[in-house]
TrEMBL record:
Highest taxon, organism lineage: Archaea
Annotated TM spans: none
N-terminal signal peptide: none
Originating organism: Marine Group III euryarchaeote CG-Epi1
Entries under Pfam families matching the protein: Aminotran_5
InterPro entries documented for this protein: Aminotrans_V_dom (IPR000192), PyrdxlP-dep_Trfase (IPR015424), PyrdxlP-dep_Trfase_major (IPR015421), PyrdxlP-dep_Trfase_small (IPR015422)
Domain Aminotransferase class V: residue ranges: 55-311
Keyword field: Pyridoxal phosphate
Protein name: Aminotransferase class V domain-containing protein
Length: 397
């Protein structure tokens, strides 16, 4: 085995454990030390005068964070609210909409299981139906995906939960076309952009999806617990926060009500959201082409990583390069290891971590009856890290 590889020359901006080969930016992101320092400063201020901070200072910083973030994802700021994570964003929409018996909600057989469960929860309760679209996989072109989604549409299809980038398989879906096609058939799209800001360019005003939720704590590298929900103008009186709080009894027009209801849902630490402008500025400054450069760097590295692993594993390529952004998955050869549930660590993941200090997700994906290994690529990663993983895979598989 070659020596343990080092991170890239930008690695020192993150506090990641020196002895771990960290190839899982995709699960929870990773926050640079400069942004964590900023959060600590805000927290110290909060605790030095909780009342003034939460009642006065944080409100101004919150409004600034909403403005900066809305500009980043090109959305009108009146439609943007902060939520703790994408799971909450999905639940917020699903638990606000009215479903009738026999209505149908589309999910994909690559949909993140927690969000799929939320769909099942509301469809079961209302007598509606969850319809699972099986995507062709391996996939040869974006058109194949659009075609199979449209084939599953019926007169009863009310909503579709569509990903920007799929979680178990790391596929960048042609979500812009999917939104256009479905919404032209009167089907609202709830876009799961958990892997959204900072991994794919977003232009929400142009996209006009009914709802978009996504995380800042993954690809924008903010502290954990910072995510957003975008609600298109015509839907704003329908969607209510999961926690009904003070704002519900205060009068206002629809744009004021959204702020009143979503900006205060009970006492919590607002600093993860307040760090969004700092993250956008700091991580964007690490490439001379700003965020466009960051995303391109990560995409190029992810494609190289995927090719190195395919070369070692000799399994099928799962999608064309054009459908890869910062995440990429490979199929693991079949073996006798039983598939575990989503909440248990996969034994092969544990082996890679415990024996080689490689932190990389290995997913048993029961909907495909297969096991995938998914690498992420961020500015701190180096090509040598994937080469090392490939050597280990050759040895252990
Ligand atoms: C596609 C997708 N949706 C939703 C989520 C949930 O994100 P969170 O745990 O931040 O709510 C994830 C997390 O990995 C995801 O990959």
């Amino acid at each position: 085995m070659s020596i343990i590889p080092r991170r890239s020359n930008l690695g020192h901006h993150w506090n990641l454990n020196e002895s771990t080969i960290f190839l899982n930016h995709g699960s929870f992101g990773a926050c640079p030390s400069k942004v964590l320092d900023h959060q600590k400063k805000l927290r110290d201020e909060l605790e030095s005068d909780p009342i003034n901070f939460l009642d006065v200072k944080a409100k101004k910083l919150w409004a600034d964070a909403i403005t900066t973030f809305s500009e980043f994802i090109k959305a009108d700021k009146e439609g943007i609210v902060f939520v703790p994570n994408a799971t909450s964003g999905v639940n917020t929409v699903l638990r606000s909409i009215d479903l009738e018996e026999n209505d149908e909600i589309l999910v994909l057989d690559h949909t993140y299981q927690a969000c799929w469960n939320a769909v099942d929860f509301v469809t079961k309760k209302s007598g509606a139906k969850t319809v699972v679209v099986s995507l062709p996989f391996p996939v040869l072109s974006p058109d194949q995906i659009i075609e199979s989604i449209l084939k599953s549409v019926t007169k009863r299809t009310k909503l579709a939960l569509i990903d920007t980038v799929t979680s178990p398989t790391g596929i960048r879906l042609p979500f812009e076309q999917i939104v256009r096609e479905l919404q032209s058939r009167n089907i609202d799209v709830l876009l799961d952009a958990a892997h959204g800001p900072g991994i794919v360019p977003l232009e929400l005003n142009k996209l006009q999806a009914a709802y978009v939720t996504g995380n800042a704590h993954k690809w924008l590298c903010t502290p954990k617990g910072s995510a957003f929900l975008y609600i298109r103008e015509d839907k704003r009186d329908l969607i209510r926060p999961l926690s009904i709080s003070h704002g519900a009894s205060v009068d206002g027009n629809i744009n004021e009500k959204i702020r009143l209801e979503f900006d205060w849902t009970g006492t919590q630490d607002p600093t993860p959201w307040l760090c969004i402008p700092k993250s956008i500025e700091f991580v964007g400054s690490l490439s001379d082409k700003g965020w466009e450069g960051v995303m391109k760097h990560n995409t190029d590295l992810a494609i190289k990583a995927r090719n190195i692993l395919l070369d070692a594993l000799k399994t099928q390529k799962l999608c064309p390069d054009s459908m890869i952004v910062g995440l990429s998955a490979v199929l693991l050869p079949e073996n006798d290891i039983p598939l575990t549930s989503v909440l248990e660590p996969d034994p092969f993941h544990t082996l890679l971590y415990e024996k080689y200090n490689i932190q990389v997700p290995v997913f048993a994906w029961p909907h495909h009856n297969r096991r995938y290994l998914r690498t992420a690529s961020f500015l701190y990663n180096s090509i040598e890290e994937y080469q090392y993983l490939a050597e280990v895979l050759k040895k252990e598989i």
